Hints:
The chain has 330 residues and is an alpha/beta fold. The protein contains eleven helices and nine strands. The protein has an eight-stranded parallel β-barrel, surrounded by eight helices.
Amino acid sequence: MIPLSLLDLAPICSDGSITQALDNSRRMAIVAEQHAYKRIWLAEHHGMLGVASSATSLAISHIAAATQHIRVGSGGIMLPNHSPLVIAEQFGTLEALYPGRIDLGLGRAPGSDMATANALRRDMNASVDDYPRNIRELQTYLGPQQAGQKIFAVPGQNSNVPLWLLGSSLYSAQLAASMGLPYSFASHFAPDQLHDAISVYRHHFQASAQCAKPFVSAGLMAVVAQTDEQAQFLFSSVQQQFINLRRGVNQPFQAPIDSMNGLWSEPERVMINHTLQYALVGSQATVKAKLANFVAATKVDEVIVSMPIYDIDARLNSVALLAECMAQLN
């Protein structure tokens, strides 16, 4: 059985509000729970006019309060933006409020532009060793009290919130393996090193108190609809979003359009199609075949999908249709 999970950025639509974006995320989590999704994660991004999940721990609490048993967590917290102690307190509090349901996925990118990263008080001169050191510090705050320990996370200490490492490079794969942590690869926007990263992670994995054996998930974009044509129409919102990211245009999530012709250049089309090469876009029959091929090629332990669809009803329908596809494969 391959678990199916969701990654959400609480997209702010061009004709909507932040309140609506967060409510849409709540509605999506409820439907995902009804269709046996394993977990739903919120991603930390800052200063983006189309993303409402920047205060990630608050968004997690919003989702967890509306659901009963689906796991809820971060995909991820960008740890260099934060003090490990503060994150331990936040996620220790979440674990106390929603026992046994909280995940703490970690990344090392800023999740923003450099000016915004500076405004977050991020240490722009941090060394490559600071990230693993901060992860170990975080583990200390979330684990059992140690002899001689002087600083405590309250809440947090002995909450044992499970950590995941997120990444899109061989560095993150090697680090997750050496620390014995589950690993989630961002193939939904960085496909090139997917297979190498999984291989490195599995080959070098060292068992830990949290994980006795390697566990890897991979991210995919997903838009499932009644027909291939309808799904491709809905997917144009994602394609516009990636054009804007490439061009440095900061705006809310855009409504779908009938054709991308004339909107993107040929180099942009090639680059974006390459970036989104693993996207599951189409009818259930089309998506099921693509999903089966992906799972067979990667042998991942879990699939986590990002489903940024402009219309909330179409998004909820896609959540349900994809769950049916995975159930048929399992």
